[in-house]
């Protein structure tokens, strides 16, 4: 059996944090975010000191996605490298919640630092395996959410089906208005 760390799920932590509407100014909101990300164990240990760190991480990760979406590969990678240096990974073998032994990218640190190390390492692995162009910002106006394009043909342009549908309907209506205006 091949060893496995699901780095794609770690990269999703970055997306969840950047896309969160919660201002992360209360422990309750941050705990909900961590629980939604499947990080309930971190949520239990969260302190007010973690809130600022999570807000700063969100800004830094959003900047990585923004530079990647503008096709500034080198800058996106430089930003990721700075984040990797700031949030080093310390792998640990763990068993919890009835799961067999598995690998976590970091343990025993502050909750925000654990979240950061996992999210940044996940993004770095995705970028090195699939490319910087797989980090995107939703093209639906005015959405601005981010996504990971793991499609086989690099075709993802929207954060969700809802945004894709909304953009397609808007484009259709614009074409209809244009045709009606020329008649």
TrEMBL record:
Membrane-spanning segments: none
Pfam families referenced in this protein's UniProt entry, alphabetically: ABATE, zf-CGNR
Leader sequence segment: none
Residue stretches making up the Zinc finger CGNR domain: 134-176
SUPFAM superfamilies with a match to the protein in the record: Jann2411-like (SSF160904)
InterPro entries: ABATE, ABATE_dom_sf, Znf_CGNR
Protein name stated in the entry: Zinc finger CGNR domain-containing protein
Organism whose genome encodes this protein: Sphaerisporangium rufum
